[in-house]
Amino acid sequence: MAMLSSPLALVQTVPPVTRTFTVATIASSALYGWCWWRGVGPDAAYFMTLIPGSCLFAPWTLLTSALVETTIFELLATLIFVPASLKYLERVWGSVEILKFIVVTVVASNIIAFGLNWIEYMVLGKPELFLAMRYHGQTALQIGLLVAFTQLIPEHNIQLFGVIKVKVKTLPMVYLTLSTILCIVGFQNPWILIQFGWFVSWVYLRFYKKTTVDSINGVTYGDRSDTFSLVSWFPPFMHGPLTILGNTVYSLATRFHLIPTSSSDIEGGAYAQVPGGARAEAERRRAMALKALDQRIANTSSAGGPSSSNGSRNAQPASMARTDSAGSSQSSASTSGGSAAKSVDDFTKAKS
To answer: For the chain, how far is it from start to end, CA to CA, in angstroms?
Structure first.
């Protein structure tokens, strides 16, 4: 009985959205594999995966296709990374916010892929581009989770395979680079979803994710800090063109009210607290402070040495001088005060 209660207690500790999403992924992937084993795989693909040519007749696949992993290796990779990440973020953001993040990242990425395939078909005239491709899996959600971790804990160090030590903020671009290479060599499905998942998740977290702060600032949206800007993802030589492009698109989006406004002027310099509670915010601030401190120490280490000791010795006479001047000022003030009081007494006596 104790052996049965232990796994049950472990499952109950998992937040509800993470638990439901994981169970749905396992069940949908198992059902998809069973359908292919029974010889009805094409029908299962029509109803469970995103086929651009038939998506208009099965619009639910824009969301449910993310629950289907077609191979055991894809399913294992998803179960290793996604549930643990969702569990962490659900405890930080809450169940409603993590559910909205999943839906927005998956559905918007699939819509972009759907549009891209139709454009490719109209340009190249190849019907297999929108009739044969079956988008599936959680690659878009995976990179979206990496983007969320980059927002919350960018300077946190992790070890890959127990050997490679990297910072969290470098992982999305590594995954994005892998996707770009695979798409160039011809593996568009499903790797192109990584490109769209990265952009969609960043836009949502940057501008649209609702953040409830104190009663003074009210409700804000997104994270407009410089550490989470678009140019921060790219090398310095690309910052100039990206800044011009980003400012132009942002101005147009603001003019047409496509971006929600906050009660505080975030763009004017006010910092929007990262969504998700004090623990994630404290870790983020601590990491950034440690990084700034390390840079300051590195810049001043060469100039430290004898000058600092001379400065400390010279500080004592200066402080003594300030003390003497303060003491003389106080004595002169008391003398003048006594003279004034004596003059007032003499005047009173003379008058009487």
So the answer is: 105
